[in-house]
Amino acid sequence: MPRFYIETELAVDTQVELTETVFHHWVKVLRAQVGETATLFNGQGGEYEAELIEVNKKTAQVQIKSFNPDNRTPSFNALLGQVMSKGDRMDYAIQKAVELGVTDIQLLTSERCEMRLKYDRDQKKLDHWQSIAIAACEQCGMNKVPNVLAPISLTDWVKSAQLPQSRFVLAPNKDQENVVLNSQPDLALLIGPEGGLSEAEIDAANQNHFQNWCIGDRVLRTETAPVVALSILNYHFSIK
Q: Are 19 and 61 in contact (CB under 8 A)?
């Protein structure tokens, strides 16, 4: 059964008009016919089974048949601070982080950041990344869509009083001590750019209670690092 994110209120035993995006994908591209069903979710929790009951030239109506409260979210909340990168690398990092259950993604700039978003037109780029998060939720079954937050500087973010107490930065561990992942389910994870974090940025993170987390002997790419870290966290919290 196809799944679609729809920005509208949903309730069982009501009729809903499909948004332009869902209409195009389901009716125009997939050629859905009256009587077919799909799963709809609006990011407010849970998902709904909807039956297509009327198709017109530019619009369609569905009947909401049932509700499933399952959100398929992990047992931990991970705020990902991701320094931006160019091209497909950023798309990949966002897509896979969402599939692995990230709670929200805070875009960051840093000393070695490859790109800057400074102008109003760059809202299109933010909308693009948010649409990637939505599409990842449609594919993987998550019903709560992570927010892709407008970029701020790394140094400002690590100082934020709103960050969880449990904080990690992917960086070399000079003391060669293994990071201990405790049972605290709320955490922040900092991932640097393709060129790596500077010593000053790592120091700033450490001064604000970020622990250095070195995952193995190899250097991970900026788009691979969140995938590996979130996979480890999924395993860690699944065995608690």
A: no
3-state secondary structure the chain: CCEEECCCCCCCCCEEECCHHHHHHHHHHCCCCCCCEEEEECCCCCEEEEEEEEECCCCEEEEEEEEECCCCCCCCEEEEEEECCCCHHHHHHHHHHHHCCCCEEEEEECCCCCCCCCCHHHHHHHHHHHHHHHHHHHHHCCCCCCCEEEEEEHHHHHCCCCCCCEEEEECCCCCCCCCCCCCCCEEEEEECCCCCCCHHHHHHHHHCCCEEECCCCCCCCCCCHHHHHHHHHHHHHHCC
pLDDT tens, the chain, 240 aa long: 899 999 999 999 999 999 999 999 999 999 999 999 999 999 999 999 999 999 998 999 999 999 999 999 999 999 999 999 988 999 999 999 999 999 999 999 998 786 776 655 588 889 999 999 999 999 999 999 999 999 999 999 999 989 999 999 998 877 656 676 777 899 999 999 988 999 999 999 999 999 999 888 888 899 999 999 999 999 999 875
Name the residue among 77, 27, 3, 68 with its Cα closest to residue 237: 77
Q: Which of 64, 150, 137 is nearest to 109 (CA)?
A: 150
Q: Which of 186, 194, 187 is nearest to 213 (CA)?
A: 187
Q: Are 79 and 188 in contact (CB under 8 A)?
A: yes
